[in-house]
Amino acid sequence: MNYPDIELYIDGRWKRASGQPVINPADESVLGTVPTATKADLDDALAAAQRGFAVWRRTSPAKRTQIILKAASLIRARVDEMAVAMTLEQGKPLDQARLEIVRGADILEWDATEGLRLYGRIIPSEEGMRHSVLRQPIGPVAAFSPWNFPMSSPGRKVAGALSAGCSIILKASEETPAGAVQLVRAFHDAGLPPGVLNLVFGNPAEISEYLIPQSAIRLITFTGSIPVGKKLAEMAGRYMKPAIMELGGHAPVIVCDDVDPLATATSSVAGKSRNAGQVCVSPTRFFVQESIYDKFANAFAEKAAQLKVGDGLDPSVQMGPLANSRRIDAMETLVADAKSKGARVLAGGSRIGNRGYFFPLTVLADVPDDARAMREEPFGPLALVNPVRNLDEAIEKANSLPYGLAAYAFTRSAHNAHRLADDIEAGNLSINHFVASVAETPFGGVKDSGYGREGGTEGLQYYTVAKNVSHKMI
Question: Which one, 109, 419, 422, 451, has the greatest CB density within 10 A?
Answer without folding.
Answer: 109
